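May I ask you to review the protein record following this short note?
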Amino acid sequence: MKVQIALSKLELKVPPVALVLCFVGLMYIVEIFLPIMSFDWQFSGIISILIACVSFLLAIAAVIQFKQQRTTVNPITPSSASSLVSGGVFRLSRNPMYLAMFGILLAWGIWLENFASLILMFGFIPYMNRFQIYPEETAMRQLFGSNYLDYCQKVKRWL
């Protein structure tokens, strides 16, 4: 019970961008301390830059859609959303900004050329699901009811 209460205190507390920066740092540290997990891939630079660019464009498109709908992009206060954004990139993913953040981590892991760093980045998804996305989904259900539930039936959480 105490563990569950302690964990619930993490909900909507760590801004996703800060979490990405933490993962970037951890992935770099892992790359330094586990060089045995390194690989050499001729195209890693090009591939990582392409993934990063696509990820940035995805994030920008999502933010633009939020701004066009005049709703908040603040992930810490999902209950202040004024409209349900379901068009554009939100037809592909309910969380394109978080998908873009994962893409940035993927690009960074490929850039580092380290398997341990790539494995570490997968911790981002369960953390985001538990402490960011589930609380956001609860707020969206309360705010938008059946419209949000219909949207969830049509569009996957990540991809």
Notes: The chain has a mean pLDDT of 94. The two ends are 33 Å apart (CA to CA).
